[in-house]
Amino acid sequence: MLRNLADLARVFATLSLISIGGGSAVIAEMQRQVIAHNWATPREFLDFYAIARSAPGPGMQLVTLIGWRVAGWAGALVASVAMFLPSGLLVYLVTTIWGRLPESRWKQAITRGLAPLAVGLTLASVVTLLRSADHPLVAAATSLVCAAALMSTKVSPLLLLALIGAAYVVAG
Amino acid sequence: MTPEQPQAEPPGLLALALSFARIGMSSFGGGNAAWIRRELVERRRWLAQDEFLTGYAMCQVMPGATTVNLSIFCGTKLRGAAGALSACAGIVLPPMLIIVLAGLAYFHVGKSPLMQHLLAGVSAAAVGLTLQMGLSSARRSFGGRIEWLLALAVIAMVGWLRWPILDAIASVGPLSILLAYHRAGR
């Protein structure tokens, strides 16, 4: 049991620090490690991934599910802390140091210059997600309708998600 | 350039944790960052639009899950180390309970076709939330056409050509920052 927990901590802390560009960057490596340690079958790993993506919260809760499978609640906690703490500490340090730098023309330029990147990456992830859907055109139409409704009305996003989910169930 | 919106007082630690718990529990099917922007920038006005976008770009480049990174960035900005902890706990812990329950259900019930249709619908709608975030952010913080060209270049590299995001950032980032530096001098 303790050995399992130590293994979970070691594997996920390493993945945390090499996951440059977000959690999805290390999914392939994570799958390799999880299967090599006999923590889940390849089929289970895929199903865990789908569950984590559709459940509320960060998609990387995938590691919570793997930890839970291996060692119950203790495993879920150890795997999550190992995955989120090392990278989180790094973000904390960078944010704090950045905040203490004096205002300057360069600082302002970096702040403004990052905006097109953030928007570009956000919309690129929209393209990637739509391309990986079972029916990309239907998914694209759905997301366009959803975005248009959000931009032109005050509809609650949760209500919109529920309505669209229900429509998919009815349409089969 | 749109004028800065008035900012609210930074929240207490509990209010921060509850806000992030709400975000964590609302973000079905992804679109976490869109929920964070909605709650912190639009609804509560704790963070300015530009501040949020800079942090979001940084959180995407740095190692770690982008959503969790973003919660830590926002928490740090608002209340330092304690704020980072409460925001992160808020967005991670309540959904953790749900995901383990979902795991239990998976092992006992398995997946039904009805469930899969529901998940497909919710995921497609959640992509719409992300789309709306990208478009609204562009409308609020872009000063002109050049920003759109830079953003379109990133979309083409990452979404269409499937470049690793670090390569896209290394090619567009310096240009974008230099342009902003040039503009700041006028």
Which chains share the greatest interface? A-B, 93 and 104 residues
Q: Count every beta strand of chain A, where a strand is a DSSP E run of 2 or more residues.
A: 0
Q: Tell me the major beta sheet of chain A.
A: none
Shape annotation of chain A: flat
Distance between the termini of chain A: 44 Å
Largest sheet of chain B: none
**Proportion of beta-strand residues of chain A:** under 5%
Roughly how many Å is the radius of gyration of chain B?
Answer: 18 Å
Mean pLDDT of chain B: 89
Computed over alpha carbons, the radius of gyration of chain A is: 20 Å
Can you give the mean pLDDT of chain A? 91
End-to-end C-alpha gap of chain B: 14 Å
Q: Bin the strand percentage of chain B.
A: under 5%
Number of continuous helical runs of chain A = 7
Oligomer: heterodimer
Explain this structure.
The complex is a heterodimer of chains A (172) and B (186). Chain A has 172 residues and is mainly α. Chain A contains seven helices and no strands. Chain A is flat. Chain B has a domain of 98 residues. In chain B, helix 1 crosses helix 2, helix 2 packs across helix 5 and helix 3 packs across helix 4. Classes of the chains: A mainly alpha (172), B mainly alpha (186). Chains A and B meet through helix 1, helix 3, helix 4, helix 5 and helix 6 of A and helix 1, helix 2, helix 3, helix 4 and helix 5 of B.
